[in-house]
């Protein structure tokens, strides 16, 4: 697959507003162009599924199974865009020069075991302990962390890109491009309960980006938000910021918030023809009720952790 084909695909998704174009370029340069220069120089329509499988195998044998799956996903999407220029008017005509009629990545299979989530959700009490750590944190950092939690643990990479112009009194809009190769990101509307609205106001959004330390010129990095969360959660064993999102879904499930509402709140994949094309309802009321439930749950006493701590003290006192 000649570099031109991969870069054309990266340019295409960049024009659609997809931040993953950076990852596409990086993975292609590191795991195709570098180790497989002869294959990288081939015309796109001469690349085979066996060659792609060998690229994936090399990564898997080096303990990078998830990267192998990502590489396959990006190559598959690139070939699919090049192949679909005949039938999809939104695909730039320059893709026709690659003369792709078959997608060789379709002849390969991902390692499903590598795609299984390794995220262990925070327990209800761990979420409450985290909430207590940030609830009265009077700083920009505290405001950002409260906003993240009180809007349902939105994907951090999407939340930090929140545009000031996409905020109104009752909700804000972020863009979800996950699982949409070759397509523009989908608008995702998130309601603001009063405590979340206060947190957002305390972030003092201005300029282009709402979550910014330079007046909105650039947004804070996803790694920055994750590091801030890690700093305040030192009492929680094996804490990782990604556990907040799954913890929120778990605690809401325990409160019998249905899976559809949880899915719409956290912008999980939309499946089915009806849901994708005909259901134009924004679910803001249901999302708001779920977030109000979340806040009520966060404000409940931390019971299990207190019992655990008391037991530890009793055990030490009898030594």
Polypeptide structure, described:
By secondary structure, the chain is mostly helical. It has 2 domains: 3-115; 124-313, Orthogonal Bundle (hpI Integrase, Chain A). Helix content is 52%, strand content 4%. Strands 1-2 form a two-stranded antiparallel ribbon. Helix 1 (3-15) packs across helix 5 (65-83), helix 2 (21-33) packs across helix 5 (65-83) and helix 7 runs antiparallel to helix 9.
Please describe the structure with a list of short key phrases separated by commas or semicolons.
single chain, 319 residues, mainly alpha, hpI Integrase, Chain A, 2 domains, two-stranded antiparallel ribbon, 15 helices
Strand content: under 5%
**CATH structural class of the largest domain:** Mainly Alpha
Q: What do we call the CATH topology of the largest domain?
A: hpI Integrase, Chain A
What is the CATH architecture annotation of the largest domain? Orthogonal Bundle
Mean pLDDT: 87
Uncertain stretches:
271-280, 306-319
Q: Cα distance, first to last residue?
A: 67 Å
Number of domains: 2
Short characterization:
The protein has helices at 3-15, 21-33, 37-40, 49-61, 65-83, 124-135, 140-150, 156-159, 194-202, 222-232, 242-254, 259-266, 273-278, 284-298, 304-317, and strands at 171-176, 186-191. It is mostly helical and 319 residues long.
